[in-house]
Amino acid sequence: MSDVEIIGLSKDFGSFVAVESVSTIFREGTVTVLLGPSGCGKTTLMRMIVGLEKPTAGQVLIGGEDVTRVATSKRRMGMVFQYPVVYRGTSVARNLELPLIADKVSKGERKKRIDEVAEILGITDLLQVNVDKLDNAGRQKVAVAREVARKPEVLLFDEPITNVDLTSKLELKRALKSVFQELRQTIIYVTHDQTEAMSLADDIALMNDGKIVQLAPPHVLYHEPADVFAGWFLGNPGMNFLRDSFVIEQGVLTSPFLSAPVRVFGDAGRAVVLGIRPEHIGASVEPNSNSVEVAVTSRSISIGGQALLELELDGHGFKAVVDHGSGKKMTDRAWITLPPSKIFLFDSDGRAIVATLSGA
Amino acid sequence: MTTPDGTSSADLPSVRLGEASQRDRRWTLASLFSWVVALIFFAPIAWIAMSAFKTTGQILSVPPLFIFQPTLENFTEMFQDPKIPKFFFNSVLLSVGSVLIAIAVSFLAAYSFSRFKPPGTDFLMFLLLSTRFVPAAAFVIPFFQLFGILNFRNTYVGLIIFYVMFSVPFSVWILKGFIDGVSQRFDETGLVNGASRAHVIFRVVLPQVKPGLVAAFVFNIIFVWNEFLFNFQLGGTDTNSIPVALFTALYQGGAVNWTYVSALGTAYVLPLAVLIYFFQKYLLVGMTFGTVRGEV
Amino acid sequence: MTQQGENHVLRLESVTKVYGDTEVLKDVGVTVRAGDFYVISGQPSSGKSVLLRLILGLELPDLGSINLRGEVVTGEGPQRRNIGYVPQSFALFPNKSVLDNITYPMRVDKTSKKIIEETLERVSELLNIRDLLDKKPGQLSGGQKQRVAIARGLAKETDIFVLDDPLVGLDFKLRERLIDDLKKTRAALGVTFIYSTSDSLEALLLANRVGILFGGTIMEEGELDTVYDEPGNSASMATLGFPSVNFLDGLMMKSDTESIAQCPIGSFPMNPTDYEGPVVLGIRPEHIEIQSEDSAQGFLAQVLFTEDVGGSEIIYVESNNERLILVLGASDPQLSKVRTGEFAASVQPEHIVAFDPNTLQRISEGKESSRV
Amino acid sequence: MTEAVIKSKQPELIQGKTGKSAPRKAKSRFSSNTLWSGGLLVPVLLFFILMNVVPTIWMLGLSFYDYTLTSAKGMEFIGFDNYTRLLNDGPIQLAISRTFLFMVLAVILQTLLGALIGFLFWRADRMPGRRLALTLLFTPMVLAPLSSGLFWRLLLDPVFGLINYFISSLGFEPVNFLTNPDWAFTTVLLVDTWMWTPFMALMTLAALGSVPKAELEAAQVDNLSMWQRLIHVIIPYAKFIIVLGILLRTIDVFKTMDLVYLMTNGGPGDRTELIAVGLYRLAFQSFNLGYSSALAVLLLFIAIALTSIYLFVLNLRARKELKDQS
Fold first, then answer.
1. Contact at 8 Å (CB) between A165 and A135?
2. D32 at C interface, C-beta within 8 A
3. Domain ranges, residue D116
């Protein structure tokens, strides 16, 4: 049992609150990604868990045991840093071995573990190479291998692929993915990159302003954002938010964005913002029975050649993604359709409202 | 599209993590030992400072006196001697005057070395540094004779010119380091926007190397303040500085006048100690001619 | 502007720049029209910064000419060119407040107080930095610094602005927002932007015209759509496109009536060409299709790794020892096949472009198939 | 602690080399740049020529003459005689070898002690009053060597000096440190060590500060022993600055004069006669200008050699840092 539980964990730097009373549990055998923009407190939170930062308030529990006052070196955690840390002037194998010696692992066991982890990470051939000769990607692999070989109860990763060159990023990501599939420990991974988070996480803890906004599996986060921030942050480009663009009366939502009113099931009276993802907006060159005419203000090319359209209706600007071919034909006009089931509603605080929309 | 309100946190300034721990002072065994070491190294100077408040008899007493009635007599007596204010005046004039000129001259040269890299830059920089590595005594003779010919001996002009050269190598090295640290993008931003080169040098780059100017200033002041040999040989009663005064005290009237030495010595050390307290972060830059940077 | 029918504001002709015995740029030609968002797209250290420095006058070319607003300025220094500049890595004056930083270009120009105030108001509104004006750059986050740097570059009474890879190193989401800001700003001011980047998605999202810089020369220049759809050489195809294009080594063979390109994933009929021999075949990730169950065509692909980029999924596969990249919409039903780890895939011939492996130039393309 | 930085040239913008030789510039270069680059150097060059080149040439010239101020003979050109005389001058050679001995001992002693103290202060990075403590520690090295010499004469006085008081209170005979031939050299060495150990402590602190924080934290997470941390984390980063410190000290010891001159004036006998002291006495006590100039030229060459080594190491480091970044 080595769940990591944090209770009311806070950290202030002077007047700046980096982490504000965060409580949550990171489950054993789960990869939890702390995702958020720079400055949201994710790294500080991780550093408090490992003990490199002293919390202003709150507790850190590992397997139910309070370690808040325990020194970092005694917490039996492993951590991979953003900057690839290797122990200089020695071989890869020796790098992996050093912490094992410190942990008083027997010689035979050391060799076994090193071979095992080198195999998983595909660095068996490098074991006798001096680490100074490796590039950043190689060094980071060594750092990952070193921490994995220690078999700590908790493994932490602080943006481990940020300082790796573009071409090696993918390979390292793959290596991490395969490592994560092998490990049954508690893994906490910090990143600001949604792609990394979506690809590696079992659970994503989305952070903003020193707080965890939402903790959920990637697809839940994407399909059921808890607030506008989550809707915007996950998605490329982020969700469109249309403020004051609709009226709900007696369970019926009418909006210039919709050709016909739709029914709303749920307590949607407070809703003031309508959210829709650009990839969920249907757009065509020709009008059809349930489309609405909009102006195309700009078009560019996006992922996979798709056309990213910037559209306008009633003074509301928003984006839609359509396929390359039809996008090219939409030069100044387009006809859009918003599927009711893909519409989200948010209240004035930006919190999501649980409601179901469906066509008449 | 409305930007969600919550995203402003992406724009929060990064916090310097080190600062918080700076406030978190506490005693450990290491800090205790550190203080003991610091006190041991300072003890000899503290003893001289103590002696400055003793009478001759107390200084020469056997066994040495640790507890005594302090007296300011040594200082009052010292400053009644009209030569003493003159020594101080000379020290200040020579050091401040020459260092200011040296820094002005060096800043221009350092800018040229850093930005235009004229042919021979490395060689000139090397020569400059090597002049500071030659034992001072080696140059005393030619200077002695040259200053005789130029009628520079025992004149402020002569000594200031000498000390400018004495301060230039160090200043060029340190300022070049600091100017190298200012991205050329700044110069270019100025030029692209229509600014002249002079504007770039004095309005764009100069304000950004203030720490370098301070470091160069403080350290050259210390070096000139401490310089003895050339002041002794090239100067005279009109232009001698405190080190020479200390030296001559040694040979006044047979025996050393220890009250005078300790009072003058104390008055002379005090500004140095204050300088390194306030400019500690430049200490490393200073002591290594600007070739190593960092804080302690 | 001098000649009829040419409304270019900047034209570089056969510009060459040499450092030591290295030709950093050779025979570069660039034509920027008024109102362009012109993106110079190229790999890191392909000479983008040098090219921008030549445009700004911070470096002078060894050969060739530079024509700015209808005048030859080849030998002129930067002071005479009147171009707004956003340098790479901010270069915000650390000793000046944000306000003083932004108004700096105008104060150097001795612009009137009234215009300074108006411009300040406009750019700080556009880039949403009103609240920061009293701060020093040291107090700002990376994204804020970036916006202030852009604002300073724009705060100049001129019509041409040079932006040197201003978004490099920023968080993904921050870039998304700044890309919107930049497009909006250029449109609002109606000016010309010349912008460099090594990020191909950034180029695609921003540009209306692109110049592909590769190996020290502009390989191709034109409208974004044209260069994307009809790349004239493999460098263009490689530089523009996200995820990056698949290149396969192939062999072009010729019979009396047609040309055939062979490669590890199949043989494809090509438009007739006289060329025979080794070719590089370019296939965009979006053009590799996942086959429905019963199709006999295509090739078998093993899934190595998938990445969810938010709305789309990038799939890395291996087939016949070749690594390939596919991209699918996140709601594409074919994703279920990807999850099984192996699937059959195919490419329509018309989506294949053949390039000469030595000159990089386009040779031919696949024949339009008569698919139903 | 900020990471120590050594300035290095920005990496040049590099492209693939072309076989073709470069066409020559077909334009009027920014002539204003050349003007500025030269113009800004004029003042420094003027000072440099007046205060360095001229004296050096002068010195070189003098070294070919037999010229003693106190003799009535006047100047006589004798070619390389002064230099051949140097080769056979026993006392001078002895002074040089004594200087090297002093150099080796002083540098070893100061490096070891400085490293220890630096490490201690590094561990105590949260000590109360750290700034004041560091000021006290560093004060000896910013004193004029002359005043240090003077102060120590008081402290070491055989009759009323503080040191001898401690020695006799421990039951030993008082020692006349500065005039006792058995003690003078050691005493001067120890006083130099008192002055300059703080410098090596400063360099050690800077060196330790140059170790990336993440590496130290990783070692902490990995629970490495202090010894392993030293070998694999600290020394690989710290060694360069320490080496620079050692080199600077070496060069500085070579210059040592004021301190010794004031404490012992090279005595008793020649026990503390370092080469710089010898040179000074040759010039200003025997007024043998020609001969002492020849010795000065020799020392100039040694200084240039040492400077070269220093810059060589500095460059190595700069290059290594560049490599690490790429």
1. yes
2. yes
3. 88-325
CA distances, C367 to each of B86, C252, C268, C287 (Å): 98, 14, 8, 14
Integer angstrom CA distances of residue C196 from B186, B187, C37, C161: 19, 20, 11, 11
**Domain-located, residue D92:** yes
- Residue B255: CB partners within 8 Å, gap ≥ 6? none
The rounded distance, in Å, linking the Cα atoms of B134 and A272 is 79
Element (H, E) at A276: strand A273-276
pLDDT in tens, D227-261: 999 999 999 999 999 999 999 999 888 888 889 98
Residues D13, C366: Cα–Cα separation, whole Å: 40
Please tell me whether residues C213 and C302 are part of one structural domain: no
Residues C231 and C294 reside in one and the same domain: no
Task: Write out the E strands in C130-200.
Answer: 160-164, 192-197
Within a domain: residue C299?
yes
Contacts of D30 in chain C (CB under 8 A): 60, 77
The yes-or-no verdict on residue D215 having pLDDT over 60 is: yes
**Closest to C234 measured CA to CA, from C350, C364, C321, C349:** C364
Q: How many domains does chain D have?
A: 1
CB atoms < 10 A from the CB of B236, how many? 14
On whether any CB of chain C is under 8 Å from the CB of D9, the answer is no
SS3 (DSSP) at A18: strand
Q: Looking at the domain assignment, is residue C315 inside a domain?
A: yes
CATH number at residue D271: 1.10.3720.10
State phi, psi for A304 to the nearest 5 degrees.
Answer: 65, 25
Tokens matching residue C58: 């911070």
Give percent of chain A with pLDDT exceeding 70: 99
Tokens 């939502």, located at residue: A253
pLDDT in tens, A163-216: 888 888 888 999 999 899 888 889 999 999 999 999 999 999 999 999 999 999
pLDDT at site C52 = 95
Which string of DSSP letters, residue by residue, matches D195-235? Answer: HHHHHHHHHHHHHHHTS-HHHHHHHHHTT--HHHHIIIIIH
Q: What confidence tier does D314 reach under pLDDT thresholds 50, 70, 90?
A: confident
Distance of CA D60 to the CA centre of its chain: 24
Query: Please, which pLDDT band fits residue C6 given cuts at 50, 70 and 90?
Result: low
A300–C206: do the CB atoms touch at under 8 Å? Answer: yes
Task: State mean pLDDT over D150-162.
Answer: 89
Q: What is the pLDDT of residue D23?
A: 40
C-beta separation of C275 from C253 below 8 A: no
How confident is the model at residue D17, as a pLDDT? 34
Min Cα–Cα distance to chain C from B135, Å: 40
Residue B232 in contact with residue B87, Cβ under 8 Å? no
Provide the whole-model pTM.
0.86
Q: What does the angle CA A320 – CA A324 – CA A330 come to, to the nearest 5 degrees?
A: 60
Using CA atoms in the order D38, D40, D41, D44, what is the torsion angle rounded to 10 degrees? 160
Spatial CB neighbours of B96, under 8 Å, sequence gap ≥ 6: B221
Q: Which two tokens stand for residue A166?
A: 């573009």
Q: What residues contact A95, with CB distance under 8 A and at least 6 apart?
A: A86, A87, A131, A142, A146
Residue A42 has pLDDT above 50, yes or no: yes
A301 closest CB neighbour out of C224, C312, C327: C224
Q: Compute φ and ψ for B234, nearest 5 degrees.
A: -95, -20
Check CB contact under 8 Å for C75 and D15.
no
Same domain, C118 and C89: yes
Q: In this complex, which of D214, D223, D232 lies closest to A83 when CB atoms are compared? A: D214
Residues of chain C with C-beta less than 8 angstroms from the C-beta of A321: 311
- Confidence label for D1 from pLDDT (cuts 50, 70 and 90): very low
| Amino acid at residue number C49 | S
For residues C7 and A167, what is the distance between their CA atoms, to the nearest angstrom? 40
